[in-house]
């Protein structure tokens, strides 16, 4: 019996490694839009966040999304993501 490997991802807020299923995927699409990917299956560059507002605030403060996507992120995008995170939490 081989054990199935659990995909781990690092939170861009706290830096902890957790299983992919526990985390929220933030996605940069080909059109340079930044959205939450609830399914985890959409095409594009992904970054992962723990489903807590603390991690979201840390990611904003230490520019985790900017580093992951190698681009500047407008304030409106953070506000939209924050509203979506509150709905999930």
Automatic annotation (TrEMBL):
Query: What InterPro entries does the record point to?
Result: YlxR, YlxR-like_sf, YlxR_dom
YlxR domain: which residues? 9-83
Which superkingdom does the taxonomy of this entry point to?
Bacteria
* NCBIfam families per the UniProt record, alphabetical: RNA_bind_RnpM
Task: Give the protein's recorded name.
Answer: YlxR domain-containing protein
Organism expressing this protein natively: Hungatella effluvii
The uppermost taxa in this organism's lineage are: Bacteria, Bacillati, Bacillota, Clostridia, Lachnospirales
